[in-house]
Design goal:
Helices cover about 65% and strands about 5% of the residues. With about 850 residues, the protein is mostly helical.
């Protein structure tokens, strides 16, 4: 792409032309030097690597319009042009990922938004299959927010528009200033479609400071009103004097303020309702505002906007007038309306405080009234995603209206369910501070909010903070709402989760058992709320090693939830489906666990997306089932991919990332990559100690995994000390009859055998086998593993007849498992068993 001249004769549109590319501005004027400078810079810097070109300047100078003109003027030099609105960094990945289909890459709905966006970036860097491409990131703020999505090499070009001067450190910056006098005159003549006298045009341009946005609004006003240029200048002078007399202090040019005020005054005269709509729009965020908010919010209790919203024809006329006066930008296909942030600020500044607060509250009511009813229903997630950018700019946190506060709580619930935990925490803490100061700690909405904040903190692994907040909130809820209120019943489940996170599995089971009685009495035996408790009880039984009971409960919950016509959310079904697969695995039927797990994983991908935490948890459990079944390659591929996603999305200290790291380490070990497994195991243990504490069963499970790796590399003394430490801690926390304690005993006996303490290993093994047969029965896989080990120890201790009898009986019991079952094969080889820890989502 070494041509510089604009291809005016060519109107060819690239094969891949983004849907978000704005239409060409027929009034675009001048800027030829800037366009030439931009084109020259793009061509000269693209030879070695992709160097972004940043159009940088103040609001209203026309950066976006310049980018639009570049796109249209040079479109025939590209095979791909893609427009990325970057004012909402959270939406950038999905916009980039939408290119995957065009580049013949795996789409986001199969690999996830983050991976699809990364693959698009890689493909563009390679220039395969497109080597002439252009990406435009419009209205980018901080470089760090989108840097990961900008190709670092390849044959294409990147164009950025921004008000932030920091882009000069990472991009070739093309400063964009106001129009020259000549450009202003040319623009006015083109926009007004008449030959405005030179001096008259220059005078108007000078009064407006040559600011393109101000000139656009001035021309729009003249066209709409028939006001002459001289008359406009006269009105502008009067308005400026009025603003000065009012002592207005603004960071924006006074000429812009005056020009804007003239347009607003005219709107007010022509259609007061349009002016009211504009003032309302000023209190939303600068991001696109869903027009549906105004339709849905018509019965929200607004007063000023009520007559307009009650008349759809009048509302449409109001938006149309604002669009014609260039005060708003309407995207019909997207169903949005947007106001320049400069105009929004000027509008807000023009109002006196009582009126400002009244209109701000109208926006609060519109947001609340325009939001869907259920934020936990996946169908409603796109609508909530459109509303979230307006919550903070609108000042929702400071609103005392109960309806608005319930909407704010729904925002937290939405962010929680889509796993945007950091945003959920930040919003919730902001709301809590304002509401508690205004209403006190025992206010109903404060308590509701605290319950959801406790859930968010728990998901983030801030278990101590979650527990402290829930311990404060729970008694207040019992006092304010009563014992059988739904809010009180829901926080009971969180309190039980806090107990599990503390390693108090039996206490969690008792809490959930009490909750089941209450839920059954209030809601019924198989109501959706009751099924949530039953699902938790299935988990409690798993954590207590009562796998048969857990399976009965897991199957009941899954059958009821999957057959329910309503009341069951997709994420609830996903959780119970994966819980069923995990319980089947823990009972030893690894093939069936894979079958159920594969179905659950497919459901998660299709309904929640591949990067939703529940889908990723399902993937991790499926990888464990594959590994247990002997499909080490399939397990390793899946768990490595899952760990990469978890680490990227939630960070290394997320409990789910940590659990996946442990599973990854075990898969690496089984694949013969022991050093890599050791490295991950060493990283995991201190994280578990920091998040869960030294005495938590999961921490000791990680300690045993590390001990096993030490044992296998020959450092048996170190392994024995670690296993004994884990055994004693687990015995103290869980009691003698628990799978983790059995596993620790099994490994400790193996350590003794490796240290030639044959009698010690045999004695420990005999006691263990008796306990396990009493607890699990003689045919359980862990029981059989203990029997094989004891047979080996009996043989080594000079008791061959007892060893042979036990081994023969054990192999007869293995016959109930398939010939290809990995543990049966391992037993047939007369190799010693060791127990390893696989984490469970709490």
């Amino acid at each position: 792409m070494d041509q510089k001249t604009a291809p005016e004769a060519s109107h060819q549109v690239p094969a891949i032309w983004g849907k978000k590319i704005p239409g060409r501005n027929k009034h675009f004027t001048g800027r030829e030097n800037l366009l030439d400078q931009l084109r020259t810079s793009i061509i000269s810097t693209a030879k070695a690597a992709v160097v972004p070109q940043a159009l940088q300047g103040l609001g209203g100078v026309g950066k976006t319009q310049l980018a639009i003109e570049y796109v249209w003027r040079y479109r025939s030099f590209y095979d791909l042009v893609w427009w990325v609105p970057a004012d909402q960094p959270m939406l950038v990945p999905s916009t980039i990922a939408a290119l995957a289909d065009h580049l013949r890459l795996r789409p986001a709905n199969s690999v996830g938004i983050e991976e699809a966006a990364a693959s698009v970036r890689d493909a563009l860097q390679r220039g395969d299959p497109i080597d002439r491409w252009l990406l435009i990131f419009d209205n980018a703020d901080e470089p760090e927010e989108i840097r990961d999505f900008i190709p670092e090499g390849g044959p294409g070009h990147v164009l950025i528009t921004s008000r932030n001067s920091r882009w000069s450190g990472v991009a070739e910056t093309v400063p964009v200033d106001v129009f020259s006098t000549e450009e202003s005159v040319e623009f006015l003549r083109k926009r007004l479609q008449k030959d405005v006298p030179q001096k008259e045009a220059e005078h108007l341009a000078s009064e407006l400071g040559d600011l393109p946005l101000a000139l656009e609004q001035a021309a729009a006003l003249q066209i709409m009103t028939g006001l002459s240029t001289e008359e406009y200048i006269e009105q502008l002078a009067l308005q400026t004097r009025e603003l000065l007399n009012l002592g207005k202090s603004t960071e924006y040019p006074l000429s812009m303020t005056a020009a804007w005020q003239l347009s607003v005054n005219e709107i007010e005269n022509r259609l007061p309702e349009a002016a009211m709509v504009l003032r309302c729009l000023a209190f939303f965020g600068p991001d696109p505002i869903p027009r549906a908010v105004f339709r849905r919010g018509s019965k929200s209790g607004v007063k000023r906007m009520a007559p307009i919203l009650a008349n759809p024809v009048l509302a449409a006329k109001a938006f149309g007038e604002l669009n014609r006066f260039a005060l708003v930008k309407i995207e019909q296909e997207a169903g949005t309306v947007q106001v320049h942030r400069l105009v929004q600020a000027l509008l807000r500044d023009s109002l006196v405080e009582p009126e400002r607060e009244e209109i701000r509250h109208e926006v609060h009511l519109l947001l609340a009234g325009g939001a869907p009813a259920d934020p936990e229903d996946t169908v409603n997630w796109p609508d909530f995603a459109d509303l979230v950018p307006h919550v903070r700019p609108a000042g929702v946190a400071r609103c005392a209206d109960r309806q608005v506060q319930r909407f704010a709580i729904d925002v937290i619930r939405y962010l929680h369910r889509v796993a945007n935990y950091s945003s959920a925490k930040n919003f919730a803490e902001e709301f809590r501070a304002h509401w508690t100061a205004a209403h006190g700690k025992k206010d109903e909405n404060v308590l509701r909010l605290c319950r959801h904040l406790g859930n968010v903190l728990w998901q983030m692994g801030a278990f101590s903070e979650s527990r402290a907040l829930n311990e404060e909130t729970f008694p207040c809820m019992r006092e304010v709402f009563g014992e059988e209120n739904e809010e009180t019943l829901r926080i009971r489940l969180t309190v039980a989760a806090d107990l599990r996170a503390k390693g108090m599995f039996r206490e969690a089971f008792e809490q959930d058992t009490e909750s089941l009685d209450l839920h059954t009495r209030v809601f019924g035996a198989v109501a959706p709320a009751t099924l949530r408790v039953l699902n938790n009880l299935a988990l409690d039984n798993v954590l207590l090693s009562r796998f048969d009971t857990a399976l009965d409960l897991a199957q009941l919950v899954f059958i009821e939830q999957s057959s329910a016509r309503d009341g069951i959310r997709i994420w609830e079904l996903q959780s119970s489906w994966n819980g069923l697969a995990r319980t089947v695995r823990l009972l030893g039927d690894h093939a069936q666990a894979c079958d159920v797990g594969e179905e659950a994983y497919a459901h998660g991908i299709s309904q929640l997306g591949i990067e939703h935490p529940l889908t990723l948890m399902t993937a991790r459990d499926l990888s464990i089932a594959r590994r247990r079944m002997g499909d080490v390659e399939g397990a390793l591929e899946l768990v490595e991919e899952t760990f990469t996603r978890m680490d990227k999305l939630f960070g290394p200290d997320s409990p789910e990332t940590m659990a996946t790291q442990v599973a990854f380490s075990r898969a690496l070990h089984q694949a013969g990559r022991s050093e890599e497994a050791m490295a991950l195991a060493r990283q995991a243990l201190p994280r578990y100690r920091r998040i869960y504490g030294d005495q938590h069963p999961f921490t000791n499970g990680c300690l045993m995994n590390l001990a096993l790796l030490y044992q296998l590399r020959g450092d048996v003394i170190q392994a024995k000390e670690m296993d004994r430490q884990a055994y004693e801690s687990l015995l103290d926390r869980l009691g003698p009859n628990h799978g983790y304690v059995f596993g620790a005993t099994l490994n400790l006996a193996s350590d003794l055998a490796a240290l030639d303490d044959v009698a010690g290993a045999r004695e420990l093994g005999e006691d263990l086998l008796a306990q396990m047969r009493a607890f699990y029965g003689p045919d359980n896989l862990l029981t059989l593993a203990a029997a094989v080990n004891l047979a080996l120890d009996l043989q080594a201790d000079g008791k061959p007849e007892q060893a042979e009898t036990l081994y023969t009986d054990t192999m007869r019991r293995y016959a109930r498992y398939d010939l290809g079952h990995p543990e049966r094969i391992h037993a047939e080889s007369k190799k010693r068993f060791n127990w390893d820890f696989d984490p469970i989502s709490l």
